[in-house]
Amino acid sequence: MRLQIKSTWRSAITFALLAIGIAILLYELEQSVPVLLARRGTDYTLYVQWGSEYSPLEHSGASVPNYYPLPTTLWVFLPLSLLPNWFTLVWTFVPFLFLLWLFRKSGIILWLSYPMLIQGSVGQMDGWLLLPLYWLFTNRPRLAGIGAALLLFKPQLAFLTILYALLAWLIRRDWHNFGAFIITLAILYLPAFVVNPLWPLIMLERMKIRASEPLLETRGASLWAWIWHGGWTLWLLPIVALIAAALVIYVFMIRRRQIQAVHLLGLMVTPVLYSSNFVTIIPMLKTTRQIATLTTISWVGVVIDILAGGWGGAYVVIPLTALWLLAANASPHPSPHHKLRA
Fold first, then answer.
1. Secondary structure class of 89 (helix, strand, coil)
2. What is the spatial distance between Cα 342 and Cα 330, in angstroms, rounded to a whole number?
């Protein structure tokens, strides 16, 4: 009898979560798709613009500077510029399906997380990198190497993570993943050097413009925002940094979740970073409890952000919480389609 009641409650909760998730996703699409289709001020709009106005001599002829590596323009932005407007629906929706593939019904909870909703509403690339990140975090044979190379389409998201993975593969003589990385990198990057050998210098020059954006001082989501904000956050920064360092060391040394610890460290110290970029934390989650906790904490960050008058540094609570969750759970990462535990 108790088992029947428990099963009924689980079914009811699952149905409720599914209904809420679908409702929010439909609302998200209703709000974002008209804007995307109108091509106004979204990340996807910029991708299409950079692709359609690309000039080999200038790396990009678009009026808005393209901060991405040239291979990203050739392999992502140019193809997007050739696709019809309705493809924005596919671009927005597919990352949400990735969550269902990775976490089954528990992935619906992540549909409600603030970073996931934001990246979906503006059509960011981050959601499309969830699977490469999962391969990397779980060190899948060959797929991890391919995933590391694909992450270089947006290198600021996981630069430290990729460097650590390469070093670990060399030390462990994991030639499958190291070789897969080199081969994929050659396929993706050699054509760019043929098209324009000077593209790295052009990208570095444009990154200086990116790093000087006024928006970073109020919306930047890393520990750098605590310095730029000044006042009370500057006084609290040493305490927060000490807590972060202790958690990173504990997760790295004791829990032996090295690549996850390095990735979270990178997210907290990368200057050009926004709250939506924290979707890259999702693939390292394992249990339903972790998923629900991080989703809830993402909205706590929103509340703190509002109370602080629109200060992006509040979202550091998300990677800090992820570190705490990893510190509290040392079990190995499950395979896809795993049965999540509460």
1. helix
2. 15
pLDDT digits (tens, 9 = 90+) for 267-309: 999 888 889 999 999 999 999 999 999 999 999 999 999 988 8
Distance, in Å, from the CA atom of 147 to the CA atom of 150, rounded to the nearest integer, reads 5
Q: DSSP letters of 236-260?
A: HHHHHHHHHHHHHHIIIIIS--HHH
The 3-state DSSP class for residue 295 equals: helix
Are residues 264 and 246 in contact, defined by beta-carbon separation less than 8 angstroms? no
* Residue in 32, 13, 198, 183 with CA at minimum distance from that of residue 117: 32
- Its sign, for the CA torsion 57, 61, 65, 69, is negative
Cα angle 134, 287, 161; round to 5: 30
Global confidence as pTM:
0.84
Q: State the Cα–Cα distance between residues 179 and 174, nearest whole angstrom.
A: 8
Q: Two tokens at 257?
A: 């979740």
